[in-house]
TrEMBL record:
Coiled-coil parts of chain: none
Keywords assigned: ATP-binding, Kinase, Membrane, Nucleotide-binding, Phosphoprotein, Transferase, Transmembrane, Transmembrane helix, Two-component regulatory system
SMART domains the UniProt entry points to: HATPase_c (SM00387), HisKA (SM00388)
GO MF, one annotated term: phosphorelay sensor kinase activity
Source organism of this protein record: Pigmentiphaga kullae
Transmembrane residue ranges: 6-27, 158-181
Annotated catalysed reactions: ATP + protein L-histidine = ADP + protein N-phospho-L-histidine
Protein name as catalogued: histidine kinase
SUPFAM superfamilies found in the cross-reference section: ATPase domain of HSP90 chaperone/DNA topoisomerase II/histidine kinase, Homodimeric domain of signal transducing histidine kinase
Occurrences of domain Histidine kinase (ranges): 238-448
Length: 450
């Protein structure tokens, strides 16, 4: 029943059968009532006509049966459908009767009017009428088996006609359903013939009006999927380009180190090799973070953001101290909806960006506070900062501010933007501490404690 064609055919045929069944039952009742009425009318008409045709004084005579039909019109009296009798009410003697009529009265009690009497072990429909003076009575009857046979024959012919009509109509309905779903079948063939990477919108003009919203919604999904695939292609191209440079540098620096004979110069080359390796490892880690976020999405858990911020900020204290930097932490209990891993990536990249680009002896302030409409996470520094004209671009993938001397991948803040958007959080970028540096403020919707 998952087939639309099967559903339509089953529904239409079932409706037709139920309608015809109800119609046939009504027709049967009407035919039975009408046919029974015609029988009763015929019995009464024959009885009255017979009584009016009898001569006066016949009740006193005994008429002998002396006539017969010509040979070519001989009649099988056993097949006669109606039987009549004429009785003398005073003497109870039969005056006249039809061929094959029973010897006893059809109506033994001589009661006038209609009735159903057992005659010869089977029910008969009878009618009796007496003359005005009460001297003679005419009784007319027919076996009810004949009525049932006539009804059966008439209903059988009607049922055969309806059955033939139903078969013809079912064929027509089947053709109409096939014709109606033909555009869907054609569309299915077109989809099967497409290449896996063909995400062009499906044609909806030929489809029925009822199916157009579904196809248009599917086209919207294809458009979003195509946009996502284009973004991923650009990401792969950019990532390959970004990885090519450090790999080439690693190759050159390794070759230089192998050729170096002076221990001091060798140590310097190994230091350069270590820095390039760390940068490549950082880039690979961020690429893996981005791929993992795209694949897994986010759940719905209550996360203690202040705990995440505190743990990650402590991890950066040693590295910041080597640069002469100071990280200050100001947190209070804050719950947000999300997952620990993505939120940890967000906080880590914000602090790493501040440490990396804040410069030597910078002050980096990390705060997490509750507000009336949510939770505010702030990471600000008093370093050289970013020109205001580039505030919106720093969250683009692989974008780096012109003129900066620090080597970075340009992925960290794009991950921050992606995670914030997935958590329904808003980002505001402005100046950092004491009117200097860069400050990033992310406002999350708050989660109520369970």
């Amino acid at each position: 029943m998952r087939s639309l064609r099967t559903r339509l055919l089953t529904g239409i045929v079932a409706t037709m059968l139920l309608t015809w069944a109800g119609t046939f039952l009504w027709y049967r009742a009407e035919v039975t009532r009408e046919w029974s009425g015609e029988w009763d009318a015929a019995l009464r008409e024959v009885a009255n006509l017979t009584l009016l045709s009898l001569p006066v004084g016949l009740e006193n005579n005994v008429a002998e049966r002396g006539f017969s039909l010509p040979g070519e019109q001989r009649l099988d009296t056993s097949q006669l459908q109606m039987t009549f009798q004429v009785w003398n009410l005073a003497t109870g003697r039969s005056v006249l009767h039809s061929p094959s009529a029973p010897g006893r009265p059809i109506v033994p009690d001589m009661r006038e009017g209609y009735g159903t009497i057992m005659v010869g072990g089977e029910p008969w429909r009878v009618y009796a009428v007496s003359d005005a003076s009460g001297r003679i009575q005419v009784q007319v009857g027919k076996p009810q088996s004949l009525l049932r046979k006539e009804l059966h024959d008439r209903l059988t012919r009607g049922l055969m006609f309806v059955g033939i009509l139903a078969c013809m109509l079912a064929c027509v309905v089947g053709c109409l359903v096939q014709w109606s779903v033909l555009p869907v079948t054609r569309l299915s063939r077109r989809i099967l013939q497409r290449r896996p990477t063909d995400l062009q919108p499906l044609p909806a003009r030929e489809l029925p009006v009822e199916l157009r919203p579904l196809v248009e919604s599917f086209n919207g999904l294809l458009g979003r999927l195509d946009e996502t695939m284009q973004n991923e292609r650009r990401f792969l191209v950019d990532a390959a380009h970004e990885l090519r440079t450090p790999l080439a540098v690693l190759t050159v620096q390794t070759e230089n180190a192998l050729r170096c004979q002076d221990p001091v110069q060798l140590r310097a080359e190994l230091g350069k090799l270590l820095a390039t390796t760390q940068r490549s490892a950082r880039l690979s880690e961020q690429l893996l973070d981005m791929a993992r976020l795209d694949a897994n999405g986010f759940g719905e858990d209550d996360v203690e953001l202040h705990t995440v911020v505190s743990v990650i900020a402590r991890d950066f204290e040693t590295g910041a101290a080597e640069r002469g930097q100071r990280i200050s932490l100001d947190t209070e209990d804050c719950l947000v909806r999300g997952r620990v891993d993505p939120l940890g990536i967000l906080v880590r990249n914000l602090i790493d960006n501040a440490v990396r680009y804040g410069g030597r002896d910078a002050h980096i302030a990390v705060a997490c506070r509750r507000e009336a409409d949510g939770v505010l996470l702030t990471v600000a520094d008093d370093g050289p900062g970013v020109p205001e004209s580039e505030y919106r671009r720093i969250f683009d993938r692989f974008y780096r501010v012109m003129g900066t001397t620090e080597r970075g991948s340009g992925i960290g803040l794009s991950l921050v933007a992606q995670i914030a958007e997935s958590h329904a959080a808003s980002i505001h970028v402005g100046t950092g501490l004491q009117g200097r540096g860069l400050g990033v403020r992310i406002r999350f919707p708050s989660a109520q404690p369970a």
